[in-house]
Amino acid sequence: MVSVLGVATDVTERERAIAYLRSEQIMLKYVIAHVPHAIFWKDRQGRFVGANQNFLNDTGITTLAELIGKTDFDLWTEADASFFVDIDQRVMSTGVPMLDIEEPLLRADGERRCLLTSKVPTREAQGEVNGVLGIYADITRRKQMEVELAKAKEAADAAARAKSELLTVMSHELRTPLALIIGPIESLLAGTAGELDAQARDALGRVQRNARRLHRLVDEVLAHQQLVHRTLELRPETVDVRDLVERLVLDAKPAAEHSGLALELERTVH
To answer: What are the sequence ranges of the domains in the chain?
Structure first.
């Protein structure tokens, strides 16, 4: 009589785990190949062991096989390679990622670029650091725009300063002739009533008011410049708007009539 012993093992879970890992590997390869960033990874000695096509494009190398085993000193200038290696060594020695590093790069085609790079340590199954993985984006255009914006701001600030200086100089220059206008008019109006007829006195009074108004406007320009430079303290006060408007209409009426226009002030009682 022959006896047979059979042992059955359920491998369903193992097969599922293997299938899951394969799916993850496929997805990882797809992401590495299609992200708009350049990706590379190196071993503990700084030798390249992998990269995506974007990185190969920057190096000028055609195939991944040509890259494997090379170091930064085989690809870049002495200065750029030294900078990259220094960052790599810090990441691998500390085991701490370094993110958003601005790195200079002279590409194989001779074009100088600026990269925003992040580097993280890679580890063995036991947790020991065995290399570094880097990913970067080309931010050359952004850096150029920042420089252009800084230059534009500097030019705008210079224009604003020139404008401020011009207004200040003009205001000071206008005050002198205004004072020479207002002074004689006040002297004439302060004379005896018989020296001027009513029409002349009224006209001179109008000239005096407008000269004083212009003088105040010049003072306000100077005050505005002080306000811009934060050397002026504002002191609000109430104004009789009705009286102000009446005087403005009264002073403007002769000019309006000279132009054939009728200017009247309408008073409304509420």
So the answer is: 14-138, 145-234
Q: pTM score, two decimals?
A: 0.55
Q: What is the pLDDT of residue 99?
A: 94
For residue 224, give the nearest of 180, 147, 158, 168 by alpha carbon: 168
Long-range contacts formed by 137-145: CB under 8 A, 24+ apart: 137/36, 137/37, 137/38, 138/38, 138/113, 138/114, 139/102, 139/114, 139/115, 140/112, 140/113, 140/114, 143/114
186 or 88, greater pLDDT: 88
User: At the topology level of CATH, where does 145-234 sit?
Assistant: Helix Hairpins (1.10.287)
Question: What is the CATH number that goes with domain 14-138?
Answer: 3.30.450.20
Examine domains 14-138 and 145-234 and report if their fold is the same: no
